[in-house]
Amino acid sequence: MSMTNLAGRVAVVTGGSSGIGYATVELLLQSGAAVALCGRDAARLDGAVSRLRAAYPEARIFARTCDVLDAAQVAEFAAAVERELGAVSILVNNAGQGRVSTFADTSDAAWVEELQLKFFSVLNPTRAFLPQLRRAPGQAAVVCVNSLLAVQPEPHMVATSAARAGVHNLVRSLATEFAPDGIRVNGILIGLVESGQWRRRYEARPAEENAMSWDDWTARLAQKKQIQLGRLGLPEEAARAIVFLASPLSSYTTGSHIDVSGGLSRHA
User: Could you read off the pLDDT tens digit of each residue along the chain, which spans 268 residues?
Assistant: First the structure.
């Protein structure tokens, strides 16, 4: 069910071939937007597009393999999107996963890699699409998918927590700078959301947990993590928050973050 009417709008979702990105693409299509998506894995992207075209045969969809850390590739993607769909007024920056490491075992190279991924997966697409966004003042919106780690760091994810905190600050800075252009910039802070990463951890669970179903295993994980709603989030639940921030429903909101963590948050 669509939350809002985005007919005539063009949206871009990076990392759109799976998980939260794919769920966001679906919800944008249901809302009437034309949607461009990108990802690094060509086979996964092709599979996602095939499913989307089958489910939404009348929708305008464009996809291209793209590494968001490669500024030239992102610039080419931005130009192609405008040629195929028109000028973009919604940009969803969604890329990257967490790195499990402590201060003691995070190498300098790992620090550089993590900081580059978290920052430039936002910086490159935002730079590339900014000229198009500026042509839609009052309608243009950028939404960054971030993690609760930005405000509630974990010692076993020290590099990711630090990088996420930087992106949290970046959203506020971009919101201030882009406001005169009529471009809103917001983010979401996700907790534990069902994903391929969590599925792989479930498949690699210890032998004594082999009898546990996915639902039982994730419920126990939620209890251990003290998630008040007692379960992991769903990709579509994060997508609803993203589309809200991208839509006119949040027309007076910028520089903000929506907590989508099921009560995992302990920050003020």
Answer: 455 799 999 999 999 999 999 999 999 999 999 999 999 999 999 999 999 999 999 999 999 999 999 999 999 999 999 999 999 999 999 977 788 999 999 999 999 999 999 999 999 999 999 999 999 999 999 999 999 999 999 989 999 999 999 999 999 999 999 999 999 999 999 999 998 888 888 888 888 888 899 999 999 999 999 999 999 999 999 999 999 999 999 999 999 999 999 999 987 5
On whether residue 96 sits in a domain, the answer given is yes
Is residue 267 included in any domain, yes or no?
A: no
Q: Which residues 6+ apart lie within 8 Å of 183 measured at CB?
A: 130, 133, 134, 137, 140, 141, 142
Q: In terms of residue numbers, what domain contains 201?
A: 194-232
Domains identified in the chain, total number: 2
What Å distances lie between residue 144 and 34, 46, 173, CA to CA? 19, 24, 13
Is residue 16 included in any domain, yes or no? yes
- Look at the pTM and tell me if it is higher than 0.90: yes
Residue 114 shares a structural domain with residue 243: yes
Residue 12 near residue 90 (C-beta atoms within 8 A)? yes
